[in-house]
Structure formats: C-alpha cells, structure tokens
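**User:**
Make up any protein.

**Assistant:**
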Amino acid sequence: MPAAEFASGPLEEAFDAGKRITLQSHLLSESGEQSLERMVEFVFQRLGHRVVGGPIYAAVRELVQNAAKANMKRVLFEELEVDPAIESQYAEAMLVFREQLIASQLKRFGPRIRELGLFFRVCMDYSSEVVSIAVINDFGLYEPEERRIRQKFIQAGDIDSLVDYFVHFSDSAEGAGMGIAMVKILLQQAGLVPRGFSIFTVDGNRRTVARLIVPLTKTYKMPRDRFTERCLELGCRPEELRAKVHAGEVSFPIFSDRALNRPL
C-alpha cells in the first residue's frame, strides 16, 4: 500500500488556512494509522480540546478499518462472482470473507484494490464550535449491508459496554459486528452525544459515508436538532422537509458555519 498522505499539505499550513484536512489510502497500514492518529489529535489539540482527541481517534480508526474491509469485500465478491442482491450468495460469500479475515488473508487483495481504485478518504472539517469527520468509500452499500447497519444502530442504542453488546448481539458476519457499538460507546465515554454518528449513502448510492459530528461547545446545535426545529417552523413532517431540501425548495445546510458545508 502506498503510504497515506495528507492531500491538503502539511497539517499546520492546512489548519491555519482553514482548509479541509484529508487522508486517502486503500488499506490501513501501520504508517497509515500513525498518520491518522496525528491528523485527528493535531486538530483537536489546536482547537483546545486535546482530551477528546484520543477517543475520537479510536472511533475514526474503527470506521477506517471498516472502510478498508469494505474495499476487500468488494474484491472478494468480484473474485467469487457474487451477486450481492441474491441473499443466499451474499451469505455464502460472507462466510468466506470471515474465514479469510480471521486468517489474515485479505491483504492479498491489495494489488486488485489499487487497480480498481477502491480507496477510502478521511475528511476533517472544523471550526471553533464543531468538528466533522467523514470516512468515505466511493461505492454504495449492498442491500444486506444497509439492513444490517440499521439493525446494529438499533441494537447499540441502549448498550453501555462492549461486553454486554457481545453477549446479546454479536454475530458471525464480519467478526462480531461490534464496530457501531464500539464507536457509540467511545463517544459516550468522551462525554459526546452518540447521535453525532451516522452512516449513509450519497449521490444515488454511489458513495458511502460514515460521519462523526463532534460539538466543541455546549451551545452548538446538532444538525438533527436544527432539522427538527425547521420542521416545526414550517409546520411539516420530517419526510416532507427532506423532500423539499432534495428538490431545492428549502435550504438546509448541514452546518451553521459555511466553511464546513463543503461537498464530500
């Protein structure tokens, strides 16, 4: 894997200029982990919230590992000629994936991942009020993946420890399926709101985004809270407001700070 690098140049220069800080790679190597840790902890230290940097790095690292595994899964499915829309084929391929994951055989897909351009990106936008960290894959979710993610968010809702989650909800697909619960618990332990964590697709399911929104002030309003307020102002249901936003009839920027509303 080529060494991960910061697309926006040296951290100090990018931060001082208010630029997005980006890391891009195909797999997460040891040097990539070091770059990721330096990137996350640098931003929170410069914003005066150094204590939050460690837990947020651990959460982002989990999301990046999931993004790298998603790359490897696509290559394996191509190799096995799997149609992920067929539930039985998807389930059988996932058994093979897990066996190779346990045996640490997935790195053999590195050349093919690079050939297909299946990289992931970590994008950090920031202000004095909030930090947004997005981990992006340039492909959409398989339907079984989307269902499983929704299920894991629901299961992780009332869990406060990974031990409890493992006992009640671990499964045989892609490990124990503990990544979402781990991120949620890390956010709670850092004194942050788990609802700042979301996974969604954009561009007609052509890209997948795992995003953490980290408020840095007590007065900052999360996008979901502002969305609810906007619904009340307009007297419409959430699905109606979403349709209006998608149609361009109503403007609803994700962040109140214009500099953070860059396209992913």
